[in-house]
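Entry type: protein chain
Record version: 2
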Amino acid sequence: MSAYNGKIFVRLFAIAFFLFLVATERSECQQSILDSTLTFTEGIIKTREALNLITQKTGFNFTYDSRLVNQERTTTMDFTQTKLSVILDSILKNDSLVYTVIDKYIIISHHEIRSSSIDTTSQNIKYITGKIVDAETSEPLPFATLALKNTGKGTVTNNNGNYGMKLTPDLLNDTLSVSYLGYTRKEIPVKEASANNLIIRMKREFISIPEIIIKTQNPQEIVARTLKAIPKNYGTSPALMTGFYREGVLKRSELQTYSEAILQIYKSAYAGTLFGDQIKVYKSRKIENTDRKDTLSIRLKAGLSTCLELDGAKNTFDFLANPSDYIYHLTDIVTYDDETAYAIEFVQHENVDLPLFQGTIYINTLDYGILNAEFEINPKYIHKMKDSFVSTNSHGFNTWPTSVKYTVSYRKMDNRYFLNHVRGDLTFSSSQKRRLFNTQFKVFFELAITETVLTNVTRFEREDLAPIHSIFSRTIKTYDAQFWGNQDFLRPEDNLLKELKNMNVKLQEFSK
């Protein structure tokens, strides 16, 4: 990566990295660490100490569900030129465990599906489904927020406006609140919303604001107040979040890879702490649709960490942190949840010769909380970002980004804002030498927060942490058709569902 592009990357922190691979040249060279021979003469020690010794000698960290490994159990650490895989079998004493090497992590998991500490029993669970649409046009409303008024439980609609939510009996007396920018909030008793395939029609609300009022508002001052209000709006205490994550790659509109997971996120305070966010992966599954006949495949790298980085209230959005590089226009004031929000469009100054962002941010007019941001890398300069996105170019191919778009939204609960939804949609073109036509890839990743808890929040143990900077799809070994249990997830969009059916994948959740 050139120094110039390196500087750009520092500015545009919320960038996903992508690894391009020639399918016929796949290699598991890192797996050789498990075949390397090591010598230890420490004698009887605890399992935790044994794993730490291996990390010190190899440079590879371990990640696993803490219930899989009894760290306090004693083991004998006497080996002479013994394969690491054999050493691990000996000290862990569990035939059902397998080891996977991803970057500088050795992942310990069950042979079939990783252990989950989330209760996935489906007894007495009510699954409600439906669609959010515009009341006049019947057009679907993508990424609308659905939330239970009396809990931290919620979800968002997918790109087709479809939603699904699983409810335990104690939640059936709650109220479902539906919110969308520019529309009147709608509240429905859960019992009335419990019919499947319910169509919820949202009414657009127009605010009559004299143009003179909009013109007299200073968008730069609004941005400054927004930054100043972050500690008050987003809190100085941590939160424990449950989230649904998915990512996928389409080549010429055909699905190549599709991965999903239930995450638990330790969301550190937005002010007054040096701690960062953490992620555990409780359950995950993937579908592969690549084979050795493919001349080029693509993998998303660091999708999990990018979702955290895109929390622009914590990792300040570039278009807020560097106002001197941007031009702001207050274009509208819209309604949201019985309040109003400034719609501020931004674009980089013409004299700034860097690939910066352009888009719209919505800011609450009362407390200056960020409600939503929709932005993309300026198409005029996106060609300069090639080295920041493509970490490995396949031999004989030239690959570059053509579009990079993000959306981030927040949910307000009890006068405090929480991360609600993150989505990235990116397209790439790849050309092979002496070939006339390009191949287009579409990549997406998405995080929807389905529950937020503020009590008894503690940081995760190091061994429980997901390798968030790695290629997530490579950490998953299996596909489970009966997967989510009582956990919430986003329904695949219509085009994805069609592709999954074309791949003869049985999605048990959508078989009805």
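Comment: The longest strand covers residues 397-413.
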